[in-house]
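Weekly sync, protein design subgroup
Attendees: M.S., D.O., the rotation student, P.L. (late)

Item 1: inverse folding check
M.S. brought a backbone from last month's batch and wanted to see whether the design step gives back something sensible before we order anything. D.O. pointed out we never logged the input encoding, so this time it goes straight into the notes. Structure tokens as presented (143 positions):
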């Protein structure tokens, strides 16, 4: 068993018209093959990834644990919002794109290959800070 890392998966199975289900199966097979410990949570309704990611980040997870979001840009946005609302807003996150557009991945140059993502986490898991921005609505009480 590979005890160097543990992977936490947050999955939106409805993303990408089935693309997320395929990506999830692929990454699960890789994790099992490489004997990497993991856990998985799936969203069942809109904005649930925000709640799940916040709960994960609030738990002060060890540095050798990785949060991977599987879904589209909206799924990644939900999870990122949860982390930013948490007690630990600098919690690392990575993303396996499985949406219909995946504009964020094209913009920052992330891989959409599950094997390449896991291999990268095993061999060179360096963190890179990315400014995620912040939007304030002009509607009172909305951000």
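Designed sequence read out in the meeting:
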């Amino acid at each position: 068993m590979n005890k160097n890392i543990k992977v936490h998966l947050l999955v939106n199975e409805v993303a990408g018209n089935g693309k997320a289900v395929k990506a999830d199966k692929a990454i699960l097979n890789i994790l099992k093959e490489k004997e990497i410990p993991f856990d998985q949570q799936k969203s069942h309704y809109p904005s649930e990834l925000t709640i799940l990611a916040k709960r994960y980040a609030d738990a002060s997870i060890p540095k050798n644990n990785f949060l991977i979001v599987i879904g589209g840009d909206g799924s990644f946005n939900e999870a990122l919002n949860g982390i930013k609302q948490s007690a630990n807003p600098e919690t690392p996150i990575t993303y396996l794109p499985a949406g219909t557009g995946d504009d964020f991945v094209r913009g920052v140059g992330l891989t959409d290959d599950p094997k390449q993502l896991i291999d990268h986490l095993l061999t060179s898991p360096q963190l890179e800070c990315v400014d995620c921005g912040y939007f304030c609505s002009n509607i009172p009480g909305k951000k």
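Discussion: The first strand starts at residue 6 and ends at 11. The chain has a mean pLDDT of 86.
Action: P.L. to compare against the previous round before Friday.
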